[in-house]
Amino acid sequence: MLGKRILLIIGGGIAAYKTLDLIRRLTERGAAVTPVLTKAGAEFVTPLSVSALAGAKVHTDLFDLTDEAEMGHIQLSRVADLIVVAPATADLMAKMASGRADDLASTLLLATDTRVLLAPAMNVRMWNHPATQRNLVTLHSDGALVVGPNEGAMACGEFGPGRMAEPLEIVAAIEAAIGSGPLADRHVLVTSGPTHEPIDPVRYIANRSSGAQGTALAAALAALGARVTFVTGPATVLPPDGVKVVRVETAREMLAAVQAALPADAAVFAAAVADWRVANAAGSKMKKDGTGRPPALEFTENPDILATIAQMTAGRPRLVVGFAAETDDVIDHATAKRARKGCDWIVANDVRPETGIMGGAENAVTVISADGAESWPRMSKDQVARKLAARIAEALA
Ligand code: C5P
User: Which ligand 1 atom is nearest residue 347's CA?
Assistant: First the structure.
């Protein structure tokens, strides 16, 4: 925590009093806290107590001209290692989810690419309201981290989830987020899931990938402190917390999303991308024409996302990892694939139906690199993910 810069946005809720203790806990661990008090927050704690505890000026108003001259709000949001919103009120969460910027706090949150940790606190019915839950899903997909809320008695006299996490729980979440993790400050891109290739507006070609291995890997990388961009096709497994989720359908959309997410320190291509798409996809729903003849679909090759990125001449991620799902001669085919695609490692697995790996919870992989092939024992996809994430951290060290 020593020397880390925390931008702390204090929202308007009774739990704001706990942020005074939070500031003290953070500063005694050596963090520098820059406090921002919303107008509603200032109804619950005073600017004087906040700035006295933080040992820093408290920022309160978007149109403070001195601040704009000295350090604009955009700058304020970018120099931080982490932005913490505590308490994150229903209103602040709604503003963030919809991208509104009508005061200093919401403008900072919209202007930043720094990670954000939310400590929600609100009445239990506000927390359970579909609108707040919808906003929470959106904020998760945008990469926000969330600590709490806890269940218990609330200042409003009701009982249930809505109490802000305790200061020490928030400190632990901050430590995990800015982590001393080996991948702190690293950006890792992960593709996952199948792609859907349209035949017409209502039909598509797909495959059986669940997205389980890619999802587990993204979670394991984030747990080591990486900033993860997770580009996913329509998977059946939900994306993990704390990563930036970019949803796509087709291989071409996936390539565009991957290119837009660069630069990255490492890129892991766990998606099961369709090799082919329908070249003559119809703009309106295909109909039976009464002759009994099925329509003739023509196929054309999709871009190879892994090969495209692995063979970049400028701006290539330092480590490019591909997966190879094979049904026979796994190691030979995967070794040839590594050379053909130009990636650094290939994680190969045997997806013959009798292995139960495709769509299952376990995986048995062989990691092929310039040093040769290393077969790992069969283990859960989560364990494979953690082991691979640790290898990636070693390679980027
Ligand atoms: O050639 P094959 O599909 O077996 O290679 C698998 C690897 O290549 C995986 O890492 C997959 O994510 C990636 N791939 C890709 N774009 C494609 C096809 C495969 O990124 N069009």
Answer: 10
Shortest-distance Cα residue to atom 17 of ligand 1: 304
**Domain-ending residue, one of 178, 198, 218:** 178
Q: Residue 321 CA: which ligand 1 atom is closest?
A: 10
> Where is 137: in which H helix or E strand?
helix 130-141
Q: Among 150, 178, 206, which residue terminates a domain?
A: 178
- Note the pLDDT tens digit of each residue in 333-364: 999 999 999 999 999 988 888 888 777 788 89
- Does residue 323's CB lie within 6 angstroms of at least one atom of ligand 1? yes
CATH number of the domain at 73, please: 3.40.50.1950
Report phi then psi at 49, rounded to 5: -65, -35
pTM: 0.69
Cα 304 to middle of ligand 1, angstroms: 6
Cis peptide before 149 (omega within 30 of 0): yes
> Does 85 share its domain with 207?
no
Indicate if 232 and 88 belong to the same structural domain: no
In tens, the pLDDT along 48-101 reads 999 999 999 999 876 665 665 556 777 777 789 999 999 999 999 999 999 999
| Total number of domains constituting the chain | 2
d(CA 210, CA 234): 9
Rounded to the nearest angstrom, the distance between the alpha carbon of 322 and the centre of ligand 1 is 7
Same domain assignment for residues 220 and 110: no
The candidate with the shortest Cα–Cα distance to 313, out of 342, 339, 338, 334, is 342
How many angstroms separate the CA atoms of 171 and 267, rounded? 30
Of ligand 1's listed atoms, the one at least distance from the Cα of 251 is 21
Active site residues: 156
Which residue has a Cα nearest atom 9 of ligand 1? 323
Whether 109 and 235 share a structural domain: no
- Is residue 194 domain-shared with residue 48, that is, in the same domain? no
Enclosing domain of residue 172: 5-178
Distance, CA 333 to ligand 1 centroid (Å)? 13
